[in-house]
Amino acid sequence: MRVIGMLSGTSCDAVDAALADLTCDPDGELTLCRRGLLSVPFPPDLHAELASCLPPAEPTWRQVCRLDAELGRFFGAAAARADTELAGGTADLVVSHGQTCYHLTQGPRALGTLQLGAPAWIAEATGLPVVSDLRTRDLARGGQGAPLAATLDALLLPHEGRPAALNLGGIANLSFRDGDGQVLAYDLGPANALIDAAARHVSGGRARRDDGGARAARGSVRPELLAALLADPYYRLPPPKSTGREHFHTAYLLRHLPEPPPPADDLLATVTELTARLVADACRRHGLTALTVSGGGVRNPVLMARIRTLTRPLPVADSSLAGLPAQAKEAYLFALLGFLTVHGVPGNVPSATGARGPALLGSLTPGAGPLRLPPPLRRAPTRLRVTTSGE
């Protein structure tokens, strides 16, 4: 099956659409052939509209309704481009994670999750069936609905040692095998969410991020501010657990700033150090033996350098060594999840999300023609082989 996997992460800078050819043999080996990535930046007006609705903002129902439709049209246009430019019009399925606008938690429990980007607009733009709303079914089974990356990581992580996969999106999440070989995963805390918030704050909204970690590189870590940020009760909750921008946002950061506030570059250095410390603390806590990193944070050399320094002698590499480019890994993840859904295979990892059991994920929106699902797989995939077009 030829599948377009799509998402916009918590950094809200672009929608990524990855094209994958997916096949599964009778022995449970899944092959994912990478056929390319299309990244479409948010138009400025849509980005501003989205930013005005994200936590801690409290948008009106009119704003939410409008944003759901606008995001659906944007995702639909991106999916149509991916089908034309990457697949030559031959895609079979679109899988859209949408844009997470709120993830509702209460202590260790996840109570609800909201991803906007109405899938009917995607189906209308492409004529293809769409799998969407991939987190809610796991929540309905008592899980966190996150991190879904554990599904892909479970197929990629070696069984020898205690290797881990780290994703540095708006939120940092970690997947690893425990001593019994089970895959565990949880959200560590903020990555780009607070770094981007600090960059926007100190620039008066002119900058969306600390490009290349330049400001953090010029600054010095403020120990008192770092200690205050590390005191957040979230970090003491046992996994499985999940969080998002509804917790870690600009207002949250401003509440922790001392008077007078630190210089701008020191603030960026401190929130960058926060993420590196969260990663290093988790690596020590779980006795990890190797770390493979993906997500937008890989493009921040200051953050990556601090992670490498604080986790020594742990080997740290980006996910391209596993065949999945760091920027594209999550888009390929959602292509995989949609492939599993239409083949009748549960897409969650209960040991990672905390769900009571396996669950078929997502909702299906028909395309231009009748909805025809492939036969269920006889055996759920047990391992993944990644190739590129032409291999």
Sequence-ordered SSE layout with sheet pairings:
Elements: E1 2-8, E2 14-24, E3 29-41, H1 44-51, H2 61-85, E4 93-106, E5 109-116, H3 119-126, E6 130-132, H4 136-140, H5 149-156, E7 163-168, E8 171-177, E9 183-190, H6 192-202, H7 214-218, H8 223-230, H9 250-256, H10 264-285, E10 290-294, H11 301-311, E11 316-318, H12 329-342, H13 350-353, E12 363-365, E13 383-388
Parallel strand pairs: 1-4, 3-13, 4-6, 7-10, 10-11
Antiparallel strand pairs: 1-2, 2-3, 4-5, 6-12, 7-8, 8-9
Helix pairs in contact: 2-3, 6-10, 8-10, 10-11
EC number: 2.7.1.170
Keywords: ATP-binding, Carbohydrate metabolism, Kinase, Nucleotide-binding, Transferase
Organism: Streptomyces chumphonensis
**How many distinct domains?**
2
What is the number of strand segments? Answer: 13
Q: Give the low-pLDDT segments.
A: none
What is the H/E string?
EEEHHEEHEHHEEEHHHHHEHEHHEE
Mean pLDDT figure: 95
Counted by DSSP, the helix tally is 13
CATH architecture of the largest domain, by name, is 2-Layer Sandwich
What's the N-to-C terminus distance? 17 Å
> What proportion of the residues form beta strands (DSSP E)?
15-25%
The shape is globular
The major β-sheet equals: 8 strands, mixed
Structural class by secondary-structure content: alpha/beta
CATH superfamily of the largest domain: ATPase, nucleotide binding domain
What is the CATH topology descriptor of the largest domain? Nucleotidyltransferase, domain 5
Radius of gyration, rounded?
20 Å
Helix content class: 25-40%
Name the CATH class of the largest domain. Answer: Alpha Beta
Keywords: ATP-binding, Carbohydrate metabolism, Kinase, Nucleotide-binding, Transferase
Protein name: Anhydro-N-acetylmuramic acid kinase
Family: Belongs to the anhydro-N-acetylmuramic acid kinase family.
Catalytic activity: 1,6-anhydro-N-acetyl-beta-muramate + ATP + H2O = N-acetyl-D-muramate 6-phosphate + ADP + H(+)
